[in-house]
């Protein structure tokens, strides 16, 4: 059983979403079938012409009989994405995501983020520059990646 509500209120808040789901689900890590529940919410916010934000969150649980606590998996995810257009040629995008997963007695948390700058040199050429960072609750598991990409389309 699933239910979803989508609203389109206006210019500054053009999209709102609430969703819920209940029913049989499979835990992909163990292959166990249980009763799953999920609640989600999301919104798009445009406070000014050049700035747009996308916020979302989800809570998910899978219960299975025969497990010590009755709960097989419990997960929470929050995500924020912000785009800013300095001009039609130059834009900046930032994304952050936090996730917590509890599986029995184990618990894992992670925080990831990325920053991407896009520069359109002409109609066929784009330069991307960015950084991607992943952090985990356990020390020593963080990583960072810096990249530059040139994309060029050729006319045939």
Describe this structure in words.
The protein is mainly β. The protein has strands spanning 2-7, 15-26, 33-48, 51-63, 71-85, 90-103, 106-122, 125-136, 143-152. A nine-stranded antiparallel β-sheet has the order 1-2-3-4-5-6-7-8-9, with no helix packed on it. A hairpin with a 6-residue loop joins β2 and β3 (33-48). The N and C termini lie far apart (50 Å). The mean pLDDT is 90.
Structural class: mainly beta
The shape is extended
Which percent range describes the beta-strand content?
over 45%
Q: What's the helix count?
A: 0
Count of domains: 1
Strand order of the largest sheet: 1-2-3-4-5-6-7-8-9
Mean pLDDT: 90
**What is the tally of beta strands?**
9
Q: H/E order of the elements?
A: EEEEEEEEE
| Helix residue percentage | under 10%
Spans where pLDDT lies below 50 across 5 or more residues: none
End-to-end separation in angstroms reads 50 Å
**Largest sheet entry:** 9 strands, antiparallel
Question: Can you tag this structure with a few keywords?
Answer:
nine-stranded antiparallel β-sheet; extended; mainly beta; 156 residues; single chain; 9 strands
Describe the secondary-structure layout.
Elements: E1 2-7, E2 15-26, E3 33-48, E4 51-63, E5 71-85, E6 90-103, E7 106-122, E8 125-136, E9 143-152
Antiparallel strand pairs: 1-2, 2-3, 3-4, 4-5, 5-6, 6-7, 7-8, 8-9
Brief characterization of the structure:
By secondary structure, this protein is mostly beta strands. Helices cover 0% and strands 74% of the residues. The protein is built from no helices and nine strands.
């Amino acid at each position: 059983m699933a239910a979803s509500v989508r609203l389109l209120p206006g210019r500054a808040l053009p999209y709102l979403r609430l969703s819920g789901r209940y029913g049989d689900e499979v835990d992909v890590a163990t292959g166990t079938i249980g009763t799953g529940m999920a609640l989600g919410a999301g919104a798009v916010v445009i406070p000014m012409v050049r700035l747009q934000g996308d916020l979302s969150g989800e809570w998910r649980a899978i219960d299975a009989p025969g497990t010590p606590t009755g709960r097989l998996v419990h997960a929470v995810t929050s995500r924020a994405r912000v785009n800013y257009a300095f001009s039609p040629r130059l834009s900046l995008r930032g994304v952050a995501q936090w996730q917590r997963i509890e599986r029995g007695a184990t618990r894992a948390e992670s925080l990831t983020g990325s920053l991407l700058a896009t520069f359109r040199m002409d109609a066929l050429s784009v330069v991307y520059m960015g950084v991607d960072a992943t952090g985990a609750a356990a020390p020593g598991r963080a990583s960072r990646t810096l990249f530059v990409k040139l994309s060029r389309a050729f006319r045939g």
